[in-house]
Amino acid sequence: MNTESILVKVQDYWKILFPVTSRFPKNLKFSLADRIQQLASELMELVVEAYFTSPEYKKPLLVKANIKVELLRRYLRVAFELGVFSSSVLLRMQEPLDEIGRMIGGWMKKLP
């Protein structure tokens, strides 16, 4: 796995995430949508930090990034269950997130 490609994947994920969260209804925009956007920001920061950190410090950052991926999955599921978006939108948002999770897992396995 090319670790640089995960940076691109996370950045590309933003391109599909933010237009969706910007269309959340007003009563969820400042709670659920903001939390989802914050988690995506934290995921980006952790992946970038892990990329530029020396090998012995990468694993704790990647574990935290993996937790952010799982939290994003859960919040997106809640938004879907609240009827904020359709199942096709949920699928479009979860597929790349699943791939990011697999990439993080692969990166962790390659570490000493």
CATH topology: de novo design (two linked rop proteins)
> In the CATH classification, which architecture applies?
Up-down Bundle
Query: How many individual β-strands?
Result: 0
Q: Determine the strand fraction and express it as a percent band.
A: under 5%
Task: Write a concise keyword list for the protein shown above.
single chain, mainly alpha
TL;DR?
With about 110 residues, this protein is an all-alpha fold.
Describe it.
- This protein is mainly α.
- It has one domain: 23S rRNA-intervening sequence (de novo design (two linked rop proteins)), CATH 1.20.1440.60.
- Helices cover 84% and strands 0% of the residues.
- α1 packs antiparallel against α4 and α2 packs antiparallel against α3.
- The longest helix has 27 residues.
- The mean pLDDT is 95.
Question: How do the strands and helices of this protein lay out in sequence?
Answer:
Elements: H1 3-21, H2 26-52, H3 58-81, H4 87-110
